[in-house]
User: Fold this.
Amino acid sequence: LATGYRERPLDALLGGLDPYLRRDASQRPRIDDQYRLVLDPTVTGHVYVQNAERHTHGVGAPDLGLAA
Assistant:
């Protein structure tokens, strides 16, 4: 793209959560319908994501204007 934007994997950023992170069949982080990472049930907190859920919520997910 002319903007220079490129999608980067989240693995380096989420490295500390890796033992608790649930992944899909393509090894991408699973995202629930509340835009949270799906973690091991022993984890009591939540990690919300923005612009990391296109593979589960579609191309319109990061563009709040499309939902309006």
Q: What stands out?
A: The chain has one domain: 1-53.
